[in-house]
């Protein structure tokens, strides 16, 4: 009888501890395991994740106003308040069954409610939270991955970016290009020190479909500024080349910085990996 009681007690302890063990929880977005310095955890039977996971991997903009957290996308806006179950969803008040809270200088929010509000599908299986976000479509083709290529003095690197939110965000920035211009007389991966007004390629962004075929390729170029200023008058500093349409546009430095910030976030969160490196 004592052995039976001990066995039942041990089973009960394991059953109780398992759901609340935050270390066993894994978060996947678009089949990618999300890297985070603070693990998701369960509170009141709801999976809570650090706010940064939402802002960087689901494509939501974040604003703070006192103790309020404002999350917004093109389609929806959610206003949460720390330690309050009341949430404002697209202007309408609703009640959560758990509250956002602050822990170890990290703000935790309920992942299912927010993800589904922003049009994502959420599934929970075997201690893994799976979130599927809305994919990017270009010319009616679903984008599976983004290949980013850049060259150095000797060789080049190709990185593969996963995650629909990253694809959507980057493509949106590329669409904010400036005026259309004529193609430069000289442009390549290499610096040309003989021709004023020459451009060298900063990076190549290739949006790929399910068959790994390019749907749209967008290349960024920078003006070779190794010449006197008087020889460079009238030349834009940055250009964007739509390769498939062979069209050239003025691009801006702040757009380039936004692209780089997204690339950095994708790398830090596990959505970007190197698939080729020929740098010597």
From TrEMBL:
Matching SUPFAM superfamilies: Copper amine oxidase, domain N
Record keyword Acyltransferase present: no
InterPro entries: Cu_amine_oxidase-like_N (IPR012854), Mao_N_sf (IPR036582)
Pfam families named in the record: Cu_amine_oxidN1
UniProt superkingdom: Bacteria
Repeat recorded as keyword: no
Domain Copper amine oxidase-like N-terminal: 29-131
Signal peptide coordinates: 1-22
UniProt keyword annotations, A-Z: Signal
Protein name per its UniProtKB record: Copper amine oxidase N-terminal domain-containing protein
Organism: Lysinibacillus fusiformis
């Amino acid at each position: 009888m004592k052995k039976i009681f001990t066995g039942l007690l041990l089973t009960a302890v394991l059953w109780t501890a398992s759901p609340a063990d935050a270390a066993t929880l894994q978060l996947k977005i678009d089949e990618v395991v999300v890297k985070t310095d603070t693990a998701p955890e369960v509170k009141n039977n709801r999976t809570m994740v650090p706010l940064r996971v939402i802002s960087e991997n689901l494509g939501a903009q974040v604003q703070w106003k006192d103790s309020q957290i404002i999350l917004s996308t093109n389609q929806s806006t959610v206003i949460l308040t720390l330690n309050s179950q009341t949430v404002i969803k697209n202007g309408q008040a609703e009640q959560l069954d758990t509250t956002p809270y602050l822990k170890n200088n990290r703000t935790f929010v309920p992942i299912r409610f927010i993800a589904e509000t922003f049009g994502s599908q959420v599934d929970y299986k075997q201690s893994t939270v799976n979130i599927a976000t809305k994919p990017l479509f270009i010319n009616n083709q679903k984008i599976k991955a983004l290949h980013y290529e850049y060259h150095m003095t000797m060789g080049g690197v190709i990185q593969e970016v996963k995650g629909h939110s990253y694809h959507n965000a980057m493509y949106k920035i590329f669409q904010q290009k400036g005026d259309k211009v004529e193609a430069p007389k000289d442009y390549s991966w290499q610096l040309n020190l003989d021709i004023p007004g020459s451009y060298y390629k900063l990076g190549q962004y290739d949006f790929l479909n399910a068959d790994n075929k390019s749907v749209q390729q967008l290349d960024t170029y920078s003006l070779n500024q190794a010449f006197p200023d008087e020889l460079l008058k009238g030349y834009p500093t940055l250009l964007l080349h739509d390769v498939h349409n062979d069209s050239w546009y003025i691009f801006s430095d702040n757009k380039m910085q936004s692209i780089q910030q997204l690339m950095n976030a994708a790398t830090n969160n596990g959505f970007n990996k190197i698939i080729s490196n020929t740098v010597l």
